[in-house]
Every structure is written in structure tokens, then in C-alpha cells.
Design brief:
- The protein is of the alpha/beta class.
- Helix content is 39%, strand content 15%.
- It folds into 2 domains: 121 residues, Aspartate Aminotransferase, domain 1 (Alpha-Beta Complex), CATH 3.90.1150.10; 234 residues, Type I PLP-dependent aspartate aminotransferase-like (Major domain) (Aspartate Aminotransferase, domain 2, 3-Layer(aba) Sandwich).
- The strands form 3 sheets. The chain has a 7-stranded mixed β-sheet with strand order 2-8-7-6-5-3-4, sandwiched between helices. Strands 9-10-13-12 form a 4-stranded antiparallel β-sheet.
- Strand 9 and strand 10 form a beta hairpin.
- Helix 1 runs parallel beside helix 14, helix 3 runs parallel beside helix 11 and helix 13 runs parallel beside helix 15.
- The model has no long low-confidence stretch (mean pLDDT 97).
């Protein structure tokens, strides 16, 4: 008898994600998909040319496990130029298969069964499964209701000798808030007497608006000394499908990170690494990114101003959250389904980013789209 053995799931709570559901619904109804967080426009042709050059130059075999030297050196120079922080390219910079893999690898490298890890809800959906796979205990601390600012009293109350790490994401997905220098310094002060590590998810670092700075954990020495700082080339250069990111961490942390990295990924796409190393010689593409995305944010917010949707602040990332209380009494998932099928615009319910599915009548929209895509969505949303 042919029988597949029954498995006990490592992740029993994980099913089809709301992102998959809403994308399928958008396709079914011909809706403008502002749910998924990735661009619908192309990257710089110069970056594609650099990939072709690398491939034809023979850079098609396994690279070093930690990433090619020119790219690690370019990343170290970029961090120092932007944030004034020095990382050794040889021992403190690792090239990863995207930021999601970087976060998983950091968690697996440092979390032992029974260790606690603090996540600040609402949060990116990979954090909790990552911790569970490591055998850790998830400690959920909500961001302040209404503002999504960090609640330091709640964070302090959650810290204890079992706390192995805290995951912080700024600019923040889904709320589009950005931590200030004072807030990052307060975090440093809270963590200083502890052995708690920081996993700093900074994938939207180049999407901070209104002339505000991105305050990287690397800029605060007390945080940098205990942090894995995670960045994403995919987010920065509009190539999310390339799945290439970086982790900057002190040598002792990087050594443990690399022990896991070499067995869950080993190496990262070679020609893309060479292309990115060459492309980083020009700082303009990432230094001009805040203005590029701010223009899209402003276009989108101006178009929504005439609707009954209440716009929450969008300080960074490429997301805009809206409170639809004046439009509908439906719960968040039901509203987003209705918005997709009846209005023709797909969004993501904020409740998807909370373990308890709490409903605040807020939906997340993505403006990393061509202007014509945004205008098409705005034309439909004008009915609200």
C-alpha cells in the first residue's frame, strides 16, 4: 500500500496567507492590486547591463559563502558614508538571499529552545514562524494604538533574563511609521543592562520622507554592538525577485550567523552580486530614492484626500494605511474583500499583522506602482 506518513506540523498555525488570497481575488476581479508590497515598474537598465556583463565575464559559479569581496566592501563603504559606522567587510558584512532569509538565519543563530523573542505588533509575517522554528517563545508587545509608536513601558515590562532578542522594523511595515533618534536611543538605554540582542529590520531604509533621517541601529554604538542590521537590495533597487540582502553585525555575532548561513543557503546568486558591487559605485540611485517614493506617496495621498478614507501618516516605506470607519462597518478582511470585488482595488487588512487579528478598521495600500497604476486605483477609490 502506498501511504504517505502523517506529519506533525512544525508550523501548525500557518496556512494560506492573506497576501496570496487577496492577490488571487484581485486577479479574479480585474482589480488594481495595491495589496502586494512590490513595484510594478522596472529597475534601472544599467543594473541589468551589469548583470549581463558579469555573466559573460564568467561569474556564474559558486561565490564565497559570505559574499564576494567587492560587494561586501561596497556595502561597508555605503554604511560608513550614510551612518558613520565602521564594519569590517571581511568579518562583519554577510550577503544573504534576501532580508527574510537574513532574519531567519539571525534567529536560528542565536535563539535556543525556550528563549524569548519580543516582536512589536503589528509585524511582518515571517518573524513569528522564524522564532517558532528555532524553538523560541514569541512575546508580543503591541505598538501604541492609533500612532504605532513604540511603547517603552510595555517593552521594559516584557524584558527578562530569558529575552534573547527583540525584532525592530523601521521604517515600519505595515504602519509606515519611522523610529526617531530619541526612540532608538531609548531602546539602547533599555537594552544596555541586558544580554538581549537586536535584529534591526531596515529594508526600507532609503524610503524615509519629508527630509527626516533614517536612524539605523548602526548609528548608535550601544545598539550596533548587539545588533544584526538587515538591509535589502531588492527593496532599494526595485528587484525584489533577486532576493539579495545584507547583514551587518559585530564579528562575534557574524561568526554565529555565518555558521547557520552556510548550511541554510551557503551562497547567493553570483552574477547579481558582481552587478550590485559595480552599481553601488554610484550613490545617486539610493540617495535619490526618498524623493522618488515621496512623489508617489504625495500623488497617492492627494488623490485619496477627496474620499472618506482617513489617511494615517506615511513617514517611510512604500505603504499608506487608511482608516475606513467612515465608509463601512465591515471587519478588515471583509472590507478588503469587498474593496477588491466591488471597487476594484486590492488592499491588505492590518489585522493580518496581529496574532489576535485585532480589528481597527484599517487597511494597508502599497504605492510602489507606476503613476498610471496609482491613478487608475484612485479613479476607482474616488467612489468611496
Amino acid at each position: 500500500m502506498n501511504r504517505t506518513p502523517t506529519l506533525v506540523s512544525r508550523l501548525p498555525a500557518v496556512g494560506t496567507t492573506i497576501f496570496t488570497v487577496m492577490s488571487a481575488l484581485a486577479q479574479q476581479h480585474g482589480a488594481v492590486n495595491l495589496g502586494q508590497g512590490f513595484p510594478d515598474f522596472e529597475c534601472d537598465p544599467l543594473l541589468l547591463d551589469a548583470v549581463n556583463v558579469a555573466m559573460r565575464a564568467g561569474h556564474n559559479q559558486y561565490p564565497p559563502m559570505t559574499g564576494i569581496v567587492p560587494l561586501r566592501e561596497a556595502v561597508a563603504r555605503k554604511i560608513e558614508a550614510l551612518y558613520g559606522a565602521h564594519y569590517d567587510a571581511g568579518s562583519e558584512i554577510t550577503i544573504t538571499a534576501g532580508a527574510t532569509q537574513a532574519i531567519l538565519t539571525a534567529v536560528l543563530a542565536v535563539v535556543h529552545p525556550g528563549d524569548e523573542v519580543i516582536v512589536l505588533e503589528p509585524c511582518y509575517d515571517s518573524y513569528v514562524p522564524n522564532i517558532e522554528l528555532a524553538g523560541g517563545r514569541v512575546v508580543r508587545v503591541p505598538l501604541a494604538a492609533g500612532t504605532f509608536r513604540p511603547d517603552f513601558h510595555a517593552i521594559a515590562a516584557a524584558l527578562n533574563p530569558k529575552t534573547r532578542a527583540i525584532i525592530v522594523n523601521s521604517p515600519h511595515n505595515p504602519s509606515a511609521t519611522v523610529w526617531t533618534r530619541d526612540e532608538m536611543q531609548r531602546l539602547a538605554t533599555l537594552l544596555d543592562p541586558t544580554d538581549t540582542l537586536l535584529i534591526s529590520d531596515e529594508v526600507y531604509e532609503h524610503m524615509v520622507f519629508d527630509d527626516a533621517p533614517h536612524v539605523s541601529a548602526s548609528t548608535i554604538p550601544a545598539l550596533a554592538a548587539r545588533s544584526f542590521v538587515v538591509s535589502s537590495f531588492g527593496k532599494t533597487f526595485h528587484v525584489t525577485g533577486w532576493k539579495i540582502g545584507t547583514v551587518a553585525a559585530p564579528a562575534a555575532l557574524s561568526a554565529e550567523f555565518r555558521k547557520v548561513h552556510q548550511f541554510n543557503v551557503f551562497t547567493v546568486n553570483t552574477p547579481m552580486q558582481h552587478a550590485l558591487a559595480a552599481y553601488l559605485a554610484d550613490a545617486a540611485p539610493y540617495r535619490t530614492l526618498p524623493a522618488f517614493y515621496q512623489a508617489k506617496r504625495d500623488l497617492f495621498r492627494a488623490g485619496l484626500a477627496g474620499t472618506r478614507l482617513r489617511l494615517l501618516p506615511s513617514q517611510g516605506s512604500y505603504f499608506q494605511c487608511v482608516d475606513y470607519s467612515a465608509v463601512s462597518d465591515l471587519g478588515e478582511e471583509a472590507f478588503c474583500r469587498w474593496l477588491t470585488s466591488e471597487i476594484g482595488v486590492a488592499a491588505i487588512p492590518l489585522s493580518a499583522f496581529y496574532a489576535d487579528g485585532r480589528d481597527q478598521h484599517i487597511a494597508r495600500l502599497c504605492f510602489a506602482k507606476r503613476d498610471e497604476t496609482l491613478r487608475a486605483a484612485l479613479q476607482r477609490l474616488a467612489r468611496l
